[in-house]
Amino acid sequence: MELLKIERIEKYYGSRSNLTKAIDGISFSVDKGEFIAIMGASGSGKTTLLNCVSTIDRVTSGHIYLEGRDITSIKGKELNKFRREKLGFIFQDFNLLDTLTAYENISLALSIQKLDHKKIDAAVKASARQLGITDVLDKYPYQMSGGQKQRVASARALVTDPAVVLADEPTGALDSRSARMLLERFSYLNDEYDATIMMVTHDSFTASYAQRVLFIKDGKIFHEIIKGTDSRKAFFDKIIDVITLLGGDVSDAL
After folding, report:
1. Buried b / exposed e along 218-236 (16+ C-beta atoms within 10 A)
2. Which of 166, 167, 221, 226 has the most CB within a 10 Å radius?
3. C-alpha distances in Å from residue 69, one per residue of 3, 82, 95, 134, 200
4. DSSP 3-state assignment of 159?
5. Averaged over 141-152, what is the pLDDT?
6. What is the pLDDT of residue 250?
7. Is the residue at 171 inside a domain?
């Protein structure tokens, strides 16, 4: 079932005398329960695309539909409510609040929604179990490893049961072991809980965990590959082949 639809979007930055076209007529859709990766070199437009889907940036033209609703037309307080209820965000630098424990960081979005304390407690603990971080719920960010902090950030994104999780370079600040653990959790959440994940990455290893990869070049979709029944290693090899066509300017370390 189609969950997200991007329809001929364009995004310009700058003034009339110095315009930059960051996104050039991109269209695609994401089904409910799909795990999709967006790849491209620095400056290709992949992060701008994610920012437009997340409503952090507004498109210059075109439309983005989530669950059939045109999110490009939402404004003000309604937009803030939409972000809280429908979108989960995972950033490269974690964005945890240092003065709050892991439990408090995860529960914050639910507290803002003024949910009952028992419901918040149950949701936080369930999300922590899914990400394997029940043992750090009482710890502060400075007491956690990078991998633990990113899994706390992931739990925070998932605890509200969003329609789609948007991840911007989620493994960028992690060592290889922590990155692998996080990606395996993403796959588990996608397989077992039907979580819809849209992830921007420059890294082929990270992208190989997705079900589909879109490659962006100069603000346009350059190519698309689908994992299907391929092993992750075979899918990784296909990603590398496309990156070679792109010019090899995207990380290809396994």
Report:
1. ebebeeebebeeeeeeebb
2. 167
3. 10, 11, 28, 36, 23
4. coil
5. 95
6. 57
7. yes
Q: DSSP for 17-69?
A: TEEEEEEEEEEEEEETT-EEEEE--TTSSHHHHHHHHTTSS--SEEEEEETTE
Mean pLDDT of 14-35: 92
Contact predicate 144/70, CB 8 Å: no
Print burial letters for 73-106: b (CB count within 10 Å at least 16), e (below 16).
Answer: ebeeeeeeebbeebbbbbbbebebeeeebbbbbb
pLDDT at 95: 92
**CATH code of 156's domain:** 3.40.50.300
Name residue 59's amino acid.
Answer: V
Residue 183, amino acid:
L
The number of distinct structural domains making up the chain is 1
Q: Residue 118: helix, strand or coil by DSSP?
A: helix
Cβ-proximal residues to 63 (8 Å cutoff; 6+ apart), any chain: 5, 7, 8, 9, 70, 72
Distance between the two ends of the chain, CA-based, in angstroms? 32
Q: Which domain holds residue 147?
A: 2-246
86 to 109, 143, 164: CA distances (angstroms): 12, 30, 7
The pTM assigned to this predicted structure is 0.91
Q: Give the Å distances, CA to CA, from 100 to 19, 88, 182.
A: 42, 19, 22
In a domain, residue 251? The reply is no
Strand partners, 13: 20
